[in-house]
Design goal:
By secondary structure, this protein is α/β, with parallel strands linked by helices. 27% of the residues lie in helices and 23% in strands. The protein contains 8 helices and 12 strands. A 7-stranded parallel β-sheet has the order 3-2-1-6-7-8-9, sandwiched between helices. The chain has a 3-stranded antiparallel β-sheet with strand order 10-11-12, with no helix packed on it. Strand 8, helix 6 and strand 9 form a beta-alpha-beta unit.
Length: 278
């Protein structure tokens, strides 16, 4: 007999549920909000900090963690022990959801298998590609093998798009991979935010469609050369319209921060606000 949503008791494990805002934890918080509204029980196990980026949705239980060297705003979850482990046992989950292949994620999969519980893994990041950014591309096959071991111990994976799902299939990460699409938050991106004066200043006609291409680059460098601390993630975008080439402005990062190659001279970084205005 199929289980009803209200019968679900989900233990969700996240490496970053709310202490730094990013796309992955926005998706997770919206998922938890939806599940709670459907009557499911959800408990989240993740690192906690004194001043998180936003209020967590659902019951958040802190786990032991340490800051990442050189990226102190992010933390590595280490173990679910003591009070957190007793909380997990008492919660009596019937489904485990892991969202990052960190030490706590591995522990959660082992715990679930020991208790005979199904494990779902959501894939938000291609962690193996991080090796390239640290000039350690030689280690990418090793990282991929470690990820494969983690994901194959799960019962199923979900990816945000068919293209990402195909990458995971090609890497033989799992044989049960489906799509968890995100959609667009219409409270943030809608035509009411369009700024016609801004569009016209760039030569975009009122009846033209402007297409934004966005990517994220790390920009965590902070120091005396900056008037304000830089955000952990900066949205770098190229804006195009059918009759216009890329219009650009690329922020001049300090030399230590130039981990990614800058775009072509004709491209420039646009804020999310600018994309909304288009």
């Amino acid at each position: 007999m199929a289980m009803e949503t209200a019968d679900l008791r989900i233990a969700l494990f996240s490496g970053n549920y709310n202490y730094v805002r990013d796309g992955a934890n926005q998706a997770l918080n919206r998922l938890v909000d939806y599940l709670l509204r459907q009557g499911a029980q959800v408990r989240i196990y993740a690192p906690v900090v004194a001043e998180p980026a936003f209020e967590a949705t659902g019951d958040l239980v802190g786990v032991g963690s340490l800051p990442i060297p050189g990226r102190a705003e992010y933390r590595v979850p280490l173990r679910v022990v003591g009070k957190a482990l007793r909380n997990l046992e008492a919660f009596a989950a019937n489904v485990v959801h892991v969202s990052s292949p960190d030490p706590v994620g591995h522990q959660a999969v082992t715990w679930a298998r020991r208790h005979g519980l199904p494990v779902l893994a959501s894939v938000h990041t291609r962690f193996e590609t991080y090796m390239r950014y640290y000039n350690m591309a030689w280690g990418e096959p090793v990282m991929e093998a470690l990820l494969r071991r983690f994901y194959r111990r799960c019962d199923a994976l979900v990816a945000p798009s068919e293209s990402m799902a195909q990458v995971l299939r090609d890497q033989r990460m799992n044989y049960d991979i489906s799509i968890w699409s995100r959609g667009v938050d219409r409270k943030i991106f809608h035509s009411g935010r369009r700024d016609m004066a801004w569009r016209r200043s760039l030569g975009i006609g009122d009846d033209e469609v402007a297409v934004g291409f966005l990517r994220l680059s790390w920009a965590s460098c902070k120091g005396p050369t900056w008037a304000e601390p830089s955000p952990p993630w900066t949205c770098c975008s190229t804006l195009r319209s059918p009759r216009h080439s890329a219009m650009s402005h690329w922020k001049s990062w300090p030399a230590a921060c130039r981990w990614l190659p800058p775009p072509r001279p004709a491209a420039r970084a646009l804020s999310t606000t600018a994309i909304q205005a288009a």
